[in-house]
Amino acid sequence: MILILGGAWQGKLTWAASHGMVGPVFDLKDGWPEAPVRCCRHLEALTRAASDRGETAQQVLDRLLPLTQEAFVISREVGSGVVPLDAAERRWREVHGAVLQGLAARAEHVSRIFCGLEERLK
């Protein structure tokens, strides 16, 4: 798995395409993929929906990992701003951060993309 992180509109998908990502891109805004994927994006939408349903980060990881073992996984960074006052928003950020940590631990490569430039983290 290759994990790609960065802010909105920073070139994450373009970077993936220029670094070997092939095949269709599954949009996690649409829910869970039914079979393993080669690339998925908007992990933050998936973790938000899971958090809203009361799922834990471990539950998300248990379901997501088998589907993304050979994939590019693309996610926005959501935890670098002001801590939200709303408890549900804080919970989502905690779930999302824990999912990212779990994916990063298992990924063979982790990069942060900013202004189209890569910062290799692992």
From TrEMBL:
Taxonomic source organism: Faecousia intestinalis
- The protein's name is Bifunctional adenosylcobinamide kinase/adenosylcobinamide-phosphate guanylyltransferase
One GO MF term on file is: nucleotidyltransferase activity
User: Which UniProt keywords are given for this protein, alphabetically ordered?
Assistant: Kinase, Nucleotidyltransferase, Transferase
Matches recorded under Pfam families: CobU (PF02283)
